[in-house]
Amino acid sequence: MAFPVAKAASLAHIARESSNIHRLSQFYKEMFGFEEIESPDFGELKVIWLNLPSAFQLHLIQRDPNSKLPEGPWSATSPVADPSHLPRGHHICFSVPISNFDSVVHALKEKGIQTFEKTLPNGKVKQVFFFDPDGNGLEIASRED
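That's the VOC domain-containing protein sequence above. Prediction below.
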């Protein structure tokens, strides 16, 4: 068995882009008991963060009207291979310790996986976006305490 590259990885959040984040938020609150939590100020980008106690967070992101990604996976007609669209699109995020972030990014690049890296303006959160072999959006994030 191979030793995992992303040591101590854990699920951080699942992001979903929507034309109506308030409608989607209400659905998840009513259906599954998600609770709205404080989210960072991303400027013009509107978001709602939800938490399912003892499980995971769901980040609802206002859809970019110029997005090349479909609003939901069921409407996809062709794959979009550019990971720079993923910060606002459909992806699952895993968190890793900040000390392991650079080695994870290096390992992705060694495997020939196209990535898009981003650091939030406060410099404390690093992100890398990419696709799995089936074209599902993924993110690995590290937060400096």
